[in-house]
Each structure stands twice: as C-alpha cells, then as structure tokens.
Amino acid sequence: MAGQSTYVPKTGFTRWLDARLPILRFTNDTMMTFPTPRNLNFWYSFGGILTFMLGIQIVTGIVLAMHYVPNASMAFDSVENIMRDVNYGWLLRYMHSNGASFFFLAVYVHMFRGLYYGSYKAPREVLWILGVIIYVLMIATAFLGYVLPWGQMSFWAATVITNLFTSIDQILPHTGTAVTQWLWGGFAVGDPTLNRFFSLHYLLPFVIAGVVVLHIWALHVPGNNNPLGIDVKGPQDTVPFHPYYTVKDLFYLSLFVILFAIVVFYLPNALVEPDNYVPANPLVTPPEIVPEWYLLPFYAMLRSIPQKLIGVIVLFGALATLVFVPWLDTSKVRSMRFRPLAKQFFWALLLDCVLLGYLGAHRPDAVFPGTGIPMLPFARLGTAYYYAFFWVILPLLGLIETPRPVPATIATSVTGSGVEQVNAPAE
Amino acid sequence: MRFSRLTLTFGVVLGAASAHAALDTSPLSPTHPDWSFEGPFGMYDRAALQRGFQVYKEVCSACHSLNRVSFHALSSDNGGDGFFTDPQVKAIAAGYQVEAEPNDKGELFDEKGNRLKRPGIPADHFPPPFPNEQAARTANAGALPPDLSIITKARAGGSDYVYSIITGFGQKPPVGFTVLPNKYYNPYFSGWNISMPPPLSANQVTYSDGTKATVPQMAHDVVTFLSWAAEPTMEQRKSLGFGVMLFLIAFSGLLYVSYRRVWKDIH
What we know:
The complex is a heterodimer of chains A (427) and B (267). With 427 residues, chain A is an all-alpha fold. Chain A has helices at 12-20, 23-32, 46-67, 75-85, 89-116, 125-147, 152-163, 175-184, 191-220, 241-266, 296-304, 308-323, 325-328, 340-360, 376-400, 410-415, and strands at residues 35-37, 238-240. In chain A, strands 1-2 form a two-stranded antiparallel ribbon. In chain A, α5 (89-116) runs antiparallel to α6, α6 packs across α7 and α14 runs antiparallel to α15. The longest helix of chain A is centred in the middle third of the chain and has 30 residues, at 191-220. Chain A is globular. Chain B is globular. The longest helix of chain B has 30 residues, at 234-263. With 267 residues, chain B is mainly alpha-helical. In chain B, the strands form 2 sheets. Chain B has a two-stranded antiparallel sheet. A two-stranded antiparallel ribbon of chain B has the order 3-4. The A-B interface holds A 38, 77, 80, 83-85, 90-91, 94, 239, 243-244, 247-248, 250-251, 254-255, 257-258, 261-262, 264-266, 268-269, 272, 274-275, 277-278 and B 40, 68-70, 73, 149-150, 153-156, 158, 230, 232-233, 236-238, 240-242, 244-245, 248-249, 251-252, 255-256, 258-259, 262-263, 266.
C-alpha cells in the first residue's frame, strides 16, 4: 500500500538534500501522495483530531508548567495565581483541563469507530495494540494531571487510586502496602507524591507522542481500513491524502474545535467537581470521591465488585481485554455494516459503556432517583456485558453469523455500479 | 417472651426507620435569582459589584478571608477586570493593615509582642480576619468560616447556592428537627444545622447610591461580588470567546467550501 515513492526533487538544493536526508521525500510520501481509500467518512477524521488535541495539551501544558508550583502547600494557590494573574493563564488552564475531556471524547469515538469497522483485524493488529497502549498512557497521564491542582478531589482521587495497589497484600502479604508507600514516597499521599506525579505528568505525553509515531507508522504499512472493511484493490479505490483528506480532516477538526471552544469559553467548569476548588485536606474526606467522566465506566466496574483485589483485577482486565480484540473477533468480514448481529451487540456495548459511566458517578449503594431501584445490580450486569461482548459474543458471532454480501471493490461501491449500493452516509 | 422481644425489636427498627425518615436533612435545591453574569453575553453589574464589595468589607470580612484576591484585581484601569479606578484601589488597600516585612532591625513584632503591620498596597492580598485556623475556630464556636475567594466555584449550585444560604435563615424548622447548640437552621445547608449565624439584617449597610439595603438586595450584591472574586477573568473570557466563535464559524465555512470543491470530481 505504501507503494513506490513518487517524489521528484525539483531544485538543486532538494536534490542535494534528498541524497543525504530524504526528509522531503518522506513527508511527500506519507502526507501528500499517500494513497487513501476514497470512501473514508466523518468518523475517520478523529485520528487527525487526536493528533491536534495531543499538540494542544503539550503546548498549553508546557506553558502552564512555567507557572505551576508542584509543592503541597503552594500547588493550589499557584493554579489560582495562573487563573488570576498570569496573562491569559485562565485560557491556558481551561484549555488544558477541558482539553483532556475533549481528548478522551475523541479517543472514544476513534476506538468505537475502529471496533465498528473492524479496523483491528489483520493486517492491522499491531496498529490496534499500539492504540490501546496510547489509550492506557492517556489514562495514566490524565489521572496524574488531575492530582496536580491539589484540590480535594485531586488528593482523594490520588489516595483511592494508589490504594488499589494495597490489594496485592491479599496474595502477597505486605507487598501491596510496600508498593503503595513506594509510590507515595511516604506513608500517605503528600508532597513527594505530588512532585513525582508532576514529573511523570510532564514525561508521559512525550511517551504518548512517541507511540503515536509508531501508531501512524503501523497505519502507513497496510494503509487505512475503510467503512466497507474491504482491501484496496487498485488506484481506482484511492485518492491522494493531500488535498482530499487534508481538507476533509481540517473541516471536521474545525467543527470539533468549535465544540471545544464553546466549553472553554462558556462552560469551562461544567465538567469539574466543585470540590476540586477546595484545597486538599487530608483530614476531611469528601462525601463522594469520583474521577473525571472519561474514567467513570471503569470506576463503576471497580465499585461493583465487593472484593477489593477482584475489583482491581476486573478494572485492569477491562483495559487488557482490548489488546486481545484482534484475535477474539473470529469473523471473516471486517466492517459491521455487513454484520447484522454484531452491529446490534456493538450498539449495546456503546450503551453499556454510557450506562456504566452514569453508574460510576454514584455510590454503589445508590438507587435510581425517584424509583428506589438499586444501581448495584445494573453495574454488575454492565460489567458482565462488557466482558461478555469481547470474550464470548465476539468469538461466537464469527462462527454463527451470516454476513451480508460485501461489495467487490471500493470504487464500484462508491460509484454505485457495484452489486450493492452501500455508499450510505456516515452511520 | 420470645414473641414480645421480637415485637420490641421490630418496633425499635420501625421507630428508627421513621425517625430516620423525619431526619432526611438533604438540602433544598437552591433558589435561582437573575444574575447579570449569566449566559454567553452576561457581564458583571458594576454597581452591584461595588455594593457587594461594601457588604463583604463591612459584614462578611469579620469572619471570612478572601486570601486569593489581590487589591489590584479590583482595578478596572489598564485593562483590569475590576470595578474601581486605580486611585480608588490604592485608597482601599491603604485602609487595610497587612503584616509588615521585617523592619530595619529585623524585627517582626513590637515591644508588646504584636505583629508589625503596615498599610496595604495594591499588590497585597486581602488580609485574613484570623491569623490561623485555630484562632478562627476559637472565635466561632469551633467552626471554620471558609475562605470566600472561590466559594461560588467550590460549591455545587454555585452562586445560587451561596445566595440561598445567605437568605435561607429565619424559617421555622419542621417538627421533629432539632437545631443543635451553637447552630442555626438553614434548609439549604446539608444537614440543615449551619454554624454561621444569620449574617445579614435589613439596613445593615448604608449604600451610597441610595439602593435600599434589604436582605435579598445585600445578598444578591455580595454574591455578585463573590462570583466576580471566584472568576475575575469571566468578562475577558466571554468577549474573547465571542471573537473566537465568529472566526471559527467563518473558518469552518471556508473549509467546507474548499472541501466540496476539492471532492467535486470524486463524489
């Protein structure tokens, strides 16, 4: 798919450079002439959006770090100082804190798109696994960043999450406690914890950027999957990346940035727990300790299990499961457009994750408002479905499901002369 | 015997349950007055800010600190987000005594052991009413009056909540509810027992602009001031946001036209 290089240096300098460091050839082949399926829809623009958001987070984060003080007695005030007395500090900070939310919004769209169109299937398994690694790194980075403002939620989220490691005590006595105290740098979350969290929060985005390079590399070897899930058969199936997808991606990126700007400028605290505007206090536990919205489904899984160690295993297992998806899906057909059964289970999974997110924001002993129906059984059912989807339904469907006929080529399908009219709008 | 014990247990459980039901002291939803600063174009009412500052200064500041707000933030000169001129801000700052730096002899305390003070300058922050948490608790029957710098962002319900707390006093507690010693009944507060005494009474301050100082008026003014204190860059944010939105919408329009044109032959 990567194909032959079509780059021809035109000037003396570019010929000279091309013989020494073919960076212009590389740029041309990967970003300009790269053959891309002609039928990619709106949902495929989120890769570009994610790259943009990573850039936003790194740039705003570097400037914020110039003003932030990673010290337990000064961190909270330094954030307030950024908000009040640093020029456009409020803009940097609101972009950074809400940027995390939009980064996750985009990554969830990107992941569900990959699931729907079977983008993890051969030959794109490594591409998918690199994506899972990026996602896990994003979770770690977001958690570390959530701690830095040193508000009540920061402090207690750090306490809850680091305490997960004490569950190791149940199989290896004292080991979990030792690991947890090693993470803290003391006997509780405190100044050393804040310092190392800041250091790691600064480090991890660059690790993410590195894995993103691998992710894009792994994308450029087999090329993009597409909504039909069929292989590119020839030049008639593709268009050059530039200008076709540069302009399309830019347009959808611009719409995404409009949404982002609405939140940054008009609803900057809509996604924030008010408790995080109260300085951290080790002596006062907030009535409810919750992570940010993008981690709530996992929090619901954790809290739906009464036994701590098993809860922790279920939490991390939910992430680890994603690594195995390329081999759990046994279907010969990639795209769920042609998989009538899988499609329904897919939408159920999406609803399941939304439900788990809702339940994760409430205590395990909570009831649905106005009904008296307890939430806990639903959290357990939701957790069970999440696992069942990947470990039972996906492997079985490939064996029992009869997929609809798949068009022969992208070109025939797009021009409508194929067996089947499938150039449907984005679904 | 066995039967009666069972009945007794049952009765106790029932009784506990009904007592618990009577004591469901979850707070009422806050009331929602009109705020000048709501919505994408809402800005702070300057006159309300000045009146609200007066209420904070003359009433709230007796117990509540405003640690994170500096005097210079009050200035509207030189592109500031405040609501006083620079000379006014200087005069306001000079009216406060803040802890002084060491004097020429390196002393921080005078002969009597009192902390040396000096008049404030615009770069100073509002000085706290109590030197430390313990002093604040001693003066307030064990309760700690929270810092008000970001109070409207630090409570669910925000400005509405703070307004409801301030105006939520003076109602008759429901039958079966006990107001604890040194506490006051306020149904907008979680648990209904609040340590803060009713802070406002009619005509407690005298407004120089002739506004009648009713409790709702003073509460509305001071919450406007506290909302500003929590988010002094809101006006800058919304006006920049308006320009950004206009640009992004126009830019998206151009991109859409380019997108259609580039793809014309493919579709």
